[in-house]
Amino acid sequence: MRHVVVVGAGPAGLAAARAAADGGARVTLLDSADGLGGQYWRHMPAERPAEREHLLHHRWTTFGELRDALAAHPAVTVVPSAQVWSLERLEYGARLNVLVGEPDGVGREALVLEPDALVLATGAHDRTLPFPGWQLPGVYSAGAAQALAKGERVAVGRRVVVAGAGPFLLPVASSLLQTGASVLGVHEAAGLGALGRGWLSRPWELAGAAGKAGELAGYVRDLVRHRVPWRPGEAVIAAHGDGQVEAVTIARLDERWARVPGTERQVEADAVCVSHGFTPRLELAIAAGCALSASRFVVVDAAQATSVAGVWAAGEITGIGGADAALAEGAVAGTAAAGGDTGAGPALVAGRARTRARGFAARIEAAHGIRGGWVGWLRDDTAVCRCEETTYGRIREVAELTGSRETRSVKLTSRAGLGPCQARMCGRTLQELLGGPEPSLGTALAPAVDRRPLVVPVRLGDLAALPQRPQQSPNPQENPT
Amino acid sequence: MTSYRVPAERDLVEPGPDRPLTILVDGEPVTGTAGQTVGGVLLGAGRREWRTTRDGGSPRGVFCGIGVCFDCLVEVNGLRDVRACLRRARDGDVVTRQGGRASREPDAEAGGDDAGGDDVGRRAGEGTSS
């Protein structure tokens, strides 16, 4: 029986696991979290069931169906709290080294898998551009505010400013309102011009993405009901406070996202939630040798196959398209990984949904894509690398001193990007500050900044206790709810 | 108090009544409810910072909330460098403010064997290879 391993249990991974199982494969679904659903369906833990949790989610019934189908399928093993910490390339496919247990705990169970087919559905995390004061407690990524609201029923503040770029700001504001927080404003960096070009061109195509449009309309209704102003062409360009956020500076931006002088105003707030888009989580795809596109997503064909035999990819690592696209891509990838024909039946329908969603993604990029003027928000003492506290001034100094605009050499000298997050927060920012993407390294088209052979830090004791040869089957685990 | 947990009886999603748990944070009891992460308990109780950076000595807490940024590292029951946003809290957990940098350096092989110790902040800083 063909063994398919799916990494990531968000919409793409769940759909992939079900399609692969339906296609006759034995399936192992891994996720580093202790529940299913990924960030999109981030929800309350089993210990804290909530009667009306569906109010916080879209397509919640889809999640329930997928979860129940996987739990009931005899060929599916779900392994929660499973951290893939490295991936080794084999002649065909890959070997996954996994630790199963409490996050960052000791004595986790080691699992080594060599599947016949691998589906990567590792998703994305939000990207936040630096600004003065962004390292203060009280500044959160927008994703954090949402995860805490949905998964913990915690409000990150009482008077909250939401800022950044993209439609994701709207569900974040809604999530905050649902915790009872006051949302003082949603400040969208894209101006009306870019928004119009992105969203109003070829409006007939938007009819195909009706589900997505309806979801966004719901968030807009929330903002209107709570009288939350939504302001295009504005940004939070600084956060202020003694030890934590007490106020933010908001300014108008021009088309290039440069601040318009004289438009700055200070607003008292105790939290600010910021996101300027998403960064795909590419570690495993890069370790597997998958080719990346110029815009740094995993290249896949119509059947979601990557450039590496035996490895498929689905969801946000193939392009930021949202949950609908992820579900469609996952279904195709799972079918293909199980050895099925993706040209037929449901896979064909899924393919059409994926095409529609990709059009939506192109609009997001056209309207909300990062413009270079943001660099003007920085001061010399602004931390660019949060881990190492490397400032913008230091990075410029090192670039000038060493005469190097190559990201890796600036990183090594300034220590920017060398902290525990492995440049996940600042890597792409550093590249942009140093003048755009650098030439790719090696044949894998894997820019150094996204390469992380050790996906997460691993404790020495766990390394010592690793098994020497792969187990073909993980120990049965209880499925999470 | 800035951050807070929505009181169960006023929450639109209608979670059941709280099942309180108490963790000790630098010796002080902090109460949350079963199923929360350590970070969630701290934020829910209005605490937003629990680590100090090595060089700048500046306070940090949760930033990304999903285990990516490593800003929220904390010592739990003697084990350093635990991401507070991921680790579920258990009644009686002893949480200690973490000073200094993360001591497991991803670029220095698998990092150091660093569970416990009083002066780990300084030691970890010194032990960093660059």
Structure description:
The complex is a heterodimer of chains A (481) and B (130). With 481 residues, chain A is α/β, with parallel strands linked by helices. Helix content of chain A is 31%, strand content 20%. Chain A contains 13 helices and 21 strands. In chain A, strands 3-2-1-7-19 form a 5-stranded parallel sheet. In chain A, strands 9-17-11-12-13 form a 5-stranded parallel sheet. A 3-stranded antiparallel sheet of chain A has the order 4-5-6. The longest helix of chain A has 24 residues, at 345-368. Chain B has one domain: Ubiquitin-like (UB roll), CATH 3.10.20. Chain B is built from 2 helices and 9 strands, in the order βββαββββββα. Chain B has helices at residues 38-44, 120-126; strands spanning 4-5, 20-25, 28-33, 51-52, 59-60, 73-76, 79-83, 94-96, 98-99. Mean pLDDT of chain B is 82; it is low at 102-130. Classes of the chains: A alpha/beta (481), B alpha/beta (130). The interface between A and B is large, with 73 and 61 residues. Strand 10 (154-155) of chain A pairs antiparallel with strand 1 of chain B.
Oligomer, anyone? Answer: heterodimer
Strand percentage of chain A? 15-25%
Placed side by side, the strands forming the largest sheet of chain A appear as 3-2-1-7-19
Instruction: Give me the side-by-side strand order of the main sheet of chain B.
Output: 3-2-8-6-7
Query: What ranges of chain B have pLDDT less than 50 throughout 5 or more consecutive residues?
Result: 102-130
**The CATH top-level class label of the largest domain in chain A:** Alpha Beta
Largest sheet entry of chain A: 5 strands, parallel
What general form of chain A does the structure show? globular
CATH level-3 fold name of the largest domain in chain A: FAD/NAD(P)-binding domain
Structural class determined from secondary elements of chain A:
alpha/beta
* Number of beta-strand segments of chain A: 21
Strand/helix succession of chain B? EEEHEEEEEEH
Q: Estimate the helix proportion of chain B, in percent.
A: 10-25%
What is the CATH topology descriptor of chain B?
Ubiquitin-like (UB roll)
> What pair of chains forms the biggest interface?
A-B, 73 and 61 residues
Strand elements of chain B, count: 9
- Measured on Cα atoms, how large is the radius of gyration of chain B? 16 Å
Based on the coordinates given, report the CATH architecture of chain B.
Answer: Roll
Low-pLDDT segments of chain A: 437-446, 475-481
**Total domain count of chain A:** 3
